[in-house]
Amino acid sequence: MNGVVVFAYHNMGLMALRALIDSGVNIHLVVTHKDNPNENIWFHSVAKLCKEKNIKFIYAEDFSIKEMNEIFCDYDISVIFSIYYRYLLPTSLLKKARYGAVNMHGSYLPKYRGRVPVNWQIINGEKESGVTLHYMIDKPDAGDIIDQTQVGITLYDTPVTLFAKLEKAGKKILNRSLNGILNGTCDRVPQDHTKATYYGGRKPEDGKIDWSWVSERIYNFIRGVTKPYPGAFSYIKDNKIIIWKASIKNLKEIDKKFIPGMVIVDKDQVYVGTGDGLIQLNKIHVNDKDYVYFNSIDLLQNGNRFTLN
């Protein structure tokens, strides 16, 4: 009996798997990831849903590509779906599906190919994101487009709020394209590779703030890696400060001289000089605690000045 194989992880993968289940698609197998104990797992579990629905699943970390190829030989696979699966699928697996392999990507391709597109789009101050369904080839996020839709990004969006928008949009385009994908009859539009942009993965140490940047760039950087991600950070002397939330402050409202990185405490409010103005710190983490009211922090006493580095 023909059916599909689904590679899925994260809330986006869970959303797509639920959509396939609700549509009555025959799911031969789900391939997901083991949660990394060193990672903040804020999203829901694909494996848990498989257990609840009695769907066969395996963890990618337990099998080699050769072993997966052997497992797939047991199934009549019409389509392979990949939704927020963390590895690029090799051609040997892609060829196992009669009508091809389909990926869901969290950007309006060909922009923001590659890793963590949601974070990068916020960091770069984009006003629009999107979700794209596309066929998979041997290059990441470069195959023909099946369907896509744009999603707005506000100045107050964080990765969590943007992901929520993308889940809704992703479910909509998956449902409207599903029959054509399963029958191999959907339209496909080649990407304009001359307009493609590509971004790589991010590590916690990439979150260090350069205070010579302009305020808007720092503000977007902070919200782009805020909770549940490791956060943007700086140091006062040897003390690491993670900045979870900030806002841009008009220079005219603060009668203080400053340089980039200088901390100014004014009327119990904390500001940091940037390349073109001031950033107000609204929520930070220091000495293993989160703070909103900064006058309780010994490091930031009213009347004193420090420099973040």
Name the poorly predicted regions: none
- Name of the level-1 CATH class of the largest domain: Alpha Beta
Strand order of the largest sheet: 3-2-1-4-5-7-8
Second rung of CATH, namely the architecture of the largest domain: 3-Layer(aba) Sandwich
Tally of DSSP helical segments: 7
Q: Major sheet, described briefly?
A: 7 strands, mixed
How is the CATH topology of the largest domain named?
A: Rossmann fold
Kindly estimate the percentage of residues that lie in beta strands according to DSSP: 25-35%
User: Helix coverage percent of residues?
Assistant: 10-25%
Principal-axes shape call: elongated
SSE string = EHEHEHEHEEHEEHEHEEEEEEE
Whole-number total of structural domains: 2
- Gyration radius (Cα, Å) is 23 Å
Distance between the amino and carboxyl termini? 61 Å
Structural class: alpha/beta
Mean pLDDT: 92
Find the count of extended strands (DSSP E, 2+ residues): 16
Task: Identify the CATH homologous superfamily of the largest domain.
Answer: Formyl transferase, N-terminal domain
In short:
The chain is α/β, with parallel strands linked by helices. The protein has seven helices and 16 strands.
Question: How would you describe this structure to a colleague?
Answer:
The protein is α/β, with parallel strands linked by helices and 309 residues long. The chain has seven helices and 16 strands. A hairpin with a 2-residue loop joins β14 and β15 (289-291). The longest helix has 25 residues, at 159-183. The chain is elongated, with a radius of gyration of 23 Å. It starts with a strand and ends with a strand.
